[in-house]
Amino acid sequence: MQLTIPNSYPEVILFFFCENIFTVIRNMSDVEREDSAPAGSLDLYTALQEVLKTSLIHDGLERGLNQCCKALDKRQAHLCILANNIDEPAYTRLVEALCTEHGINLLKVDDSKKLGEWAGLRRIDMEGKARKVNGCGCVVVKDYGKESQALDILNEYFRSKK
């Protein structure tokens, strides 16, 4: 495949751009994944991260109060995650009431920023670090995507909780 460059663009800029893309791809492949834990060592929150990531990939995640309440009310949700540090008590009561009324599993996490990062509401910089993380008060899983060990850990947690 032959790449033709218009005369209006200097070749140096194109080379610089291609070199930076190559460097980013090479660095991403060299970095060992932090989020993948060895088998058998998943705790509840690591398992939750894995489930949220898989659900996000399969387009089965709803984020924010409006979308979460719609999914909860239509009984499309399998799991609801709520942040503890929400300032509005009516927000928390509404989500808890909908989960209780429809029998949907509810899990609470400490920080809305951390929940927003897990739900994909962030930008990732060149080094692969999360930047510009937006907080999220509520996340609903409508589709788990695929069966995994992390999903089994979450299901076992909810079975033991009942």
Automatic annotation (TrEMBL):
One of its GO terms (cellular component) is small ribosomal subunit. Gene3D superfamilies: 3.30.1330.30. SUPFAM superfamilies: L30e-like. InterPro entries: Ribosomal_eL30-like_sf, Ribosomal_eL8/eL30/eS12/Gad45, Ribosomal_eS12, Ribosomal_eS12_CS. Residues 47-140 form the Ribosomal protein eL8/eL30/eS12/Gadd45 domain. Keywords: Ribonucleoprotein, Ribosomal protein. The keyword Magnesium does not apply. It comes from the Eukaryota. The keyword Transmembrane does not apply. Belongs to the eukaryotic ribosomal protein eS12 family. One of its GO terms (biological process) is translation. This is 40S ribosomal protein S12. Pfam families: Ribosomal_L7Ae. GO terms for molecular function: structural constituent of ribosome.
